[in-house]
Design a protein that fits this description.
Largest sheet: 2 strands, parallel
Structural class: mainly alpha
Shape: globular
Order of helices and strands: EHHEH
Number of helices: 3
Strand content: 5-15%
Number of strands: 2
Radius of gyration: 13 Å
Helix content: 40-55%
Number of domains: 1
Distance between the termini: 33 Å
């Protein structure tokens, strides 16, 4: 499997767009953990490895991006 971080930005964008168009992406949850696991499973079928380590630092820590607060 190819690590997500090793994909160039254009390939990452293409995969995110493909996932957004796929009806399977509708997880029915607001849980970031569940959404991340679902996206990782979707990518695994496409030979791409993704984990919480691939999320932006603010999302990993739960920090509110708009105010900089947790």
């Amino acid at each position: 499997m190819i690590p997500w971080a090793e994909l160039d930005a254009n390939r990452q964008l293409q995969l995110r767009e493909d996932y957004a168009r796929d009806p399977i992406c509708l997880t029915g949850t607001c849980s970031l953990e569940a959404k991340t696991a679902h996206f990782a499973a979707w990518l695994a079928v496409r030979s791409v490895a993704f984990s919480t380590a691939d999320l932006s630092p603010a999302r990993r820590s739960g920090e509110d991006q708009s105010s900089g607060r947790s």
